[in-house]
């Protein structure tokens, strides 16, 4: 399989669910630019919420241990549940 076939960006579609993309800007496994491209592509076609947080100094496994900064996931999920996932 080619990189284009395995990239999440290749699977972006108008019916995508809400997304919260949290990415470290020092990720050595998946470049932060890849996450930015993915978010941009989603925002162009999806009516569902697409939120992006790029964490300064964070690596790929920044969320191994629970932290205050990662509580945003729970806030995002609660907000999406309240609104039924629609809108931006």
From TrEMBL:
Residues 6-63 form the Peptidase S9 prolyl oligopeptidase catalytic domain. SUPFAM superfamilies: alpha/beta-Hydrolases. It comes from the Bacteria. This is Prolyl oligopeptidase family serine peptidase.
């Amino acid at each position: 399989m080619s990189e284009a076939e395995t990239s999440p960006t290749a699977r972006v579609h108008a019916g995508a669910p809400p997304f919260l993309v949290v990415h470290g800007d020092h990720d050595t496994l998946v470049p932060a630019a890849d996450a930015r491209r993915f978010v941009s592509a989603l925002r162009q076609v999806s009516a569902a919420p697409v939120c992006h947080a790029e964490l300064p100094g964070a690596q790929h496994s920044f969320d191994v241990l629970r932290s205050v900064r990662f509580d945003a996931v729970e806030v995002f999920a609660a907000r999406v549940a309240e609104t039924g996932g629609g809108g931006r």
